[in-house]
Amino acid sequence: MNMIPPNTSMDAAKKQFLKEFGESYGYPNAPKHIDDLRATEFERLDGNVYLDHAGATLYSELQMEAIFRDLTTTVYGNPHTQSSSSLTSSNIVEDARHQVLKICNASPKEYKCIFTSGATAALKLVGEAFPWSNESTFMYTIENHNSVLGIREYALNKGAAALAIDFEETAQSDTFGSTKSSIKVSQHPIPKRSEARVSNRDPTGHTYNLFAFPTESNFSGMRFNLDLIDMIKEDSERILGGSQHSRGSWMVLLDAAKGCSTEPPDLSKHKADFIVISFYKLFGYPTGLGALIVGNEAAKLLKKTYFSGGTVAASIADIDFVKRREGVEESFEDGTLSFLNIASIRHGFNILNTLTTSAISRHTSSLARYTKNMLLALRHANGVEVCKIYGLHSLKAVYSGVGPVISFNLKRSDGSWVGHREVEKLASLSGIHLRTGCFCNPGACAKYLGLSHLDLISNIEAGHVCWDDYDILNGKPTGAVRVSFGYMSTFEDAWKFIDFVVRSFVLLPTNSINLNPLRSTESSHHLTSIVVYPIKSCSGFRVDTWPLSSTGRELIVI
Q1: What is the C-alpha separation between 546 and 552, in angstroms, rounded?
Q2: Quick one: which of 245, 107, 286 has its CA closest to 163?
Q3: What is the CATH number of domain 99-302?
Q4: Mean pLDDT of 261-269
Q5: From the candidates 387, 440, 445, 538, which is the catalytic residue?
Q6: Are the folds of 10-58+356-505 and 99-302 the same?
Q7: According to the UniProt record, where is the region Disordered (predicted)?
Q8: Which whole-number Å values give the CA distances from 283 to 56, 122, 367, in the listed order?
Q9: For 33-91, what is the HEC assignment?
Q10: Has 538 been annotated as catalytic?
């Protein structure tokens, strides 16, 4: 796709966009056109551009009206109480379990749904209850959320090994001189802990290992090929080069918190053992609720230590006696379920079922591709590229595509980096909501930004921590800018964001300023006056004239 010519209005730009992406944009089979959906169910977005759906998507007003009507007309009692209102809650919970399994095409005969307080709690549950031994290995891809990396603590404390891996493509020549590409797995072992509480093998004498990866990277948006599940389960020795980590049986954990909103895993084809989901990533509300989908055979291996209300059939207070419940869900759902939140998710699923996740995927991907192409086409007046996008080159054997996420950094005309926090602050002033930093994905951040271990340690010693303002250290970015689209995002959101980037960061020819990425102007501009307020509540002082700089940088007075 080429850059839209100058002097093009937003309406004209949209027409050109629809020529290329019209078949993917919107929901032709839904009751409302995308523009009507946005106008009637997301009125609160008027004047705002929300581009952080990878962080949390938005609930619709119609969805909340349905939830309010449901909760104000139905009596939901504690599911542990033996009453009609309790039965109502129990029935809605069981129905919700089936809806969760259905979105991942998981058979109730093979999988169970355990409700948790979020995706992180689901991951924590797996780490706590997995049958680690001193011969086990916890292996995970570099591109994983911190909540997945945290499982490493359980593995290492039980004497298991931990192994971070990444994939790279290598070229090999055969005897006929033809070149074939193959996938090489780079391994980064984490040293075992000498003080670990070493656990022996499982009573059966078997070793169990766990491999974790996301269905979609929350940093780059790259979707991992789910064939990796079969590859590690059936041929771990080939992947790991016959290392000691390949022994025993491998189980697979999928972090689907980000990817499930547009491309849920099909568990009828790809038999992962553990899958974690977050509902506010799917449809905005409720927060504080997630789910762990667990295979029946995998559930039998989990070893629960803690017991609580709801997980026991009987206990005696003053002697060491407890009889646990035998059902998978009952065994792992501590205390009273968040049954009102669970009752609310069916109204979110109604949206997904109406629009369909396949249509949502096409719609959001069309916006992401358009935005990506426009950003890549931007150049400063001297020809220097404006935008560096991460995750453009992928390995087909490892990745199956890209989700509606764009992670990038901006450059000035002299080639130096624009700090991601500077972008975030200016975007906020323009009513644009996006996210910056490493997005709790340190491995992907270091990988794409080219940060070595020495760089990372140096940054930490300089005082850099998550969410601070140290966005450039030693001439390198410490994080990135991320925009992500949701089912209610529109072309206008993408266009306004590109407009913001050009107005704020693209250097145009001397004495020329572009107020619109699709329209050029040639007249010079200068501020006629500016009032500075250096002290709160005190009067400011006025500057009569302040010419704009020709360096492309902006002066921000806070």
Answers
A1: 15
A2: 245
A3: 3.40.640.10
A4: 96
A5: 440
A6: no
A7: 178-200
A8: 8, 19, 19
A9: CHHHHHHHHCHHHCCCEECECCCCCCCCHHHHHHHHHHHHHCCCCCCCCCCHHHHHHHH
A10: no
